[in-house]
Amino acid sequence: MLLKLIMICIAFFPFAQTAQVYAFSPRDNCLWIEYGVRVREKDGTLTLPLEIKYGVFPGKEQGARDLRDLRVFYGSDGEDPGKRVYYHEVSVEEAGRVYRARIRLSDRVNRFTVRAQARRDEYGVTYRYCAKTSFLLFGRFSSGKNKSRGILPNEVARRLEITLTPEFHYWPEVGNPVTIASVFDNSPRPYNTIYLFDENGVSVELHADKTGSCRYLPPEDAKLNRKGEPAFKQTVMVAQEESGGIKYISSYTLLLHRSRFKNYRLFPGVVVFLGTAVGVSFLIMSRRKRFDLEYQ
Amino acid sequence: MGHFLPCFACPYVGTCAGNCYLMALQGSQWGVQIPFAEIVSVWTLGIAGMFVGFLLLAIIFSKLWCGWICPFGTLQDWISSIRKKLGIRESRFSWSTRDNLKSVKYIILAILIIVPVFIANGGLHPDFKLPFCQICPAKLLMPLFSGTPKYFAIDTTNPITTVMTAASIVVTAGVLIGMIFKERFFCLFCPLLALISIFQRIGLLRLKKRPDACTGCRNCHGVCPVDIRQVHLQKENVFTQDCILCLKCVEACPQDGTLSLRLLNKDIFSSSKKYIWRQILRKCGKEKL
Asked: Rounded distance, CA B63 to CA B192, Å?
């Protein structure tokens, strides 16, 4: 009887271990980046305020007391085009339940990437949080040589990362598909789950295929369409991975703009054009007279 | 070639080597769509630089941009030559209508400056940005030459974009038909011509007339594509604000030196009796005088 009991316990032990493997759910906390309003300074530079939040997107940020080693970096692919991206660290200030970082930029057209990282230890388990976002900047001036640039710290280098394919040419838009992949230690993660949350509270669960990528078509947003072309809505994608006893939770903040061309209706436009052309031609033909040259 | 060309080199043509200054003027990067708080800042250096570039080109070449370089003017000339070959009679405005139309381009110029200012400072919806470019007929017609018909579409994103794109299509259709029946029809309303005209007094080029040599034949007025009467009626200063410096009047004048294009007070192109006779004989099929 005792032997049977021991055998049952041994049989259940692997399942018990599996049950302890971390399974991220949309209600779990993550670290993400939110954009503030870009400010054009009088000296020609741009200041981009960012808020680094911890909690559940959108709107359920918690205080980050349990977070350690929060660091924020930004890098540009313009400094050495085609080569390594160098990152600059920026200082972070605590403001209530959020952390604020201000990035001052003076570069011309470049793609900037911002990464934030932090860790948390709880009940012997280490959580590594990483938040990332990327944007294009149409600046005016060259930044020149920046002596303080460097590379990302090692612990961030071995990281879980969400990537977009292709990297958007202008900016990501609703109505245009985006291919998303989670990459861990430079290897794509097949069959991984990526959660997507937008600021309207809509959440979507995406499942990667065997190549580690999944396709997402951001739906049209009537509220976004009514705003101007530069307006955007913030969408956060979250993925998780566990390795070596460390749980990695990474997010990517995507700024989705309204579609520039998806709402173009060519046929009605051509009809209006032809109709106007016929109408104006008729008007001219019926009303024009032969004018003699007149003098005052 | 920059964003300060004084002609309709349309930025919506993807392969364009240089862009029309009107887009820069209305925009937020090099134009008037700038918050008042940023007027005194480094940002205005770019705006000033772009304006200086435009001004230099406008002073040096004056309205030669309009008469000889502008792609949209060239399109109008092509359409006019097709009209002539088809034997379609040109329509002409009455004098009163022509005089009333003179101020339209200045009104358009004022609107395209005021609207971006209100977008940046008055809370006007950002979809009114680049107001003239949104309705400009060049935006629809010139990209056709690079195989892009998409601007004939109505943008149904929101009511503002729907109205603006529909308006641009209506304006384009009206202007295109106008161009068929009237030579250089769009030049009568062109805000870039209005802008260059403001600075033509400080330009290097002048169109001058010697009134004592004029015989009153009215050839100059007859060939003028923009129906300028002053070239015939006025005694000396015939370089009016509507003139596009196409120099057809100089070509058509049968008297030596009556009309001339002057650069820094030196004649560089003058009317010539010999030239007229050569043109007549060439048309009659004879090469020699």
From this structure: 10
The tokens describing B96, both together, are 């009163």
Joined together, the tokens standing for residue A70 give 């929060």
Using an 8 Å CB-CB cutoff, list residues of chain A that contact chain B.
Answer: 40-44, 138, 140-141, 225-231, 258-259, 261, 263-266, 268-270, 272-277, 280-281, 284, 288, 290-291, 293-296
Contacts for B6 with CB less than 8 Å, ≥ 6 apart = B21, B54, B57, B58, B61, B65, B192, B195, B196
Cβ–Cβ < 8 Å for B124, B115: yes
Residue A75 CA to residue A70 CA, distance in Å, equals: 17
Do A248 and B141 form a contact (C-beta atoms < 8 A)? no
User: B178–A295: do the CB atoms touch at under 8 Å?
Assistant: no
Per DSSP (E only), the strands in A44-201 are 46-56, 60-62, 68-76, 86-90, 92-95, 98-105, 110-122, 125-137, 160-165, 178-184, 187-188, 193-198
H/E element holding B21?
helix B21-26
Residue of chain A whose Cα is closest to the Cα of B168: A273
Region for residue A220 given its phi and psi (left: phi exceeds 0; alpha: psi -120 to 50; beta: otherwise): beta
The answer, for B154 touching chain A at a CB cutoff of 8 Å, is yes
Provide the token pair at B127: 């979809």
Are A274 and B173 in contact (CB < 8 Å)? yes
Q: Are A71 and A116 in contact (CB under 8 A)?
A: yes
Q: Are A141 and A106 in contact (CB under 8 A)?
A: yes
* Residue pLDDT, tens place only, B34-68: 999 888 888 888 899 999 999 999 999 999 999 99
Q: Which one of A106, A138, A257, A266 would you mutate to disrupt binding with B, by most B Cβ within 10 Å of its Cβ? A: A266
Q: Report whether B6 contacts B244 (CB < 8 A).
A: no
Q: Is B126 on the interface with A (CB under 8 A)?
A: yes
0.80 surpassed by pTM: yes
- Quote ipTM for the complex: 0.90
